[in-house]
Amino acid sequence: MTTQSSRTTAPGFPAPRRPRGDGSVAAVATRLVDLRRRLERTDLRPAPDTDAAFGELVGLCCFPPAGCTEGVLAQVAPHSDALRTLAATGEGHMENHWAGLIAAAPDPRAELDRFPYLGNYHDLVRLELAALTAVGLPAPRRVVVLGSGPLPLTGLVLATGHGAQVLHVDRDRAAVAAGDAVTAALGADGRVRSLVADLDDPQLSPALADELGRADLVLVGALVGPDAATKAAITARLTTATGPGTTLLVRSAAGLRTLLYPEIVPADLPALDVLLEVHPRTDVVNSVLVARAAT
Fold first, then answer.
1. Contact 248, 49 (CB under 8 A)
2. Of 50, 77, 178, 216, which has the maximum CB count within 10 A?
């Protein structure tokens, strides 16, 4: 999930609303629980009330009042799993909605420009490429994006804006088909391919293992694996197939943003040597860990 860029005013989740008024731990925790209940009364598909609730939820998580994070997390702990599930489901509905609009539009590029979070995908990719540079690694040429979803903008930005050859991987065949339709509509299918594969399978498929062995960057989406234990098992399987020079970028979250995505810390990834952690305090929601297979 990314928050809305100021460069557009298209429909979709609105810009995150920075909290005002009472910034006490109790007030923020109460509002988060209220938002959970409000969202649970909807089908989580794009609509004015749903969009407004998600906008406020993302705003509270990204820009909490100073000094309240630990207390709020403790108070809302019984609701954290439900909030993450709501956020993931809402994001999936939003991506499906926009994937359909872009693929069917007479001018797909103009429709993509209306997507309210496009600027944030560019920001997140720039952050991740800068993190690679910070540890002395070059820009990637062959990238595997795991958990690409129906609107695979990370891979498309890497392919069209940074010259990478990209493989999109998702276990959901319908999501892959939607992503392929977007890729074709935007004319990026010369640099982007796709593969259906389930990373929860104990044995990687031969096709995926071959692609991982030839990649120089593997990007593990924030929703690939719902918790630290699953993420650890997945990344351990990945290292059996990646080449010696392959870098992994593992997306995570920090602070109240962990109510939107699972938190992953270096200790959760025993098969990896984590070289750098980056926790943005901007409109970009995700943290990122830069890692390589442990030696």
1. no
2. 178
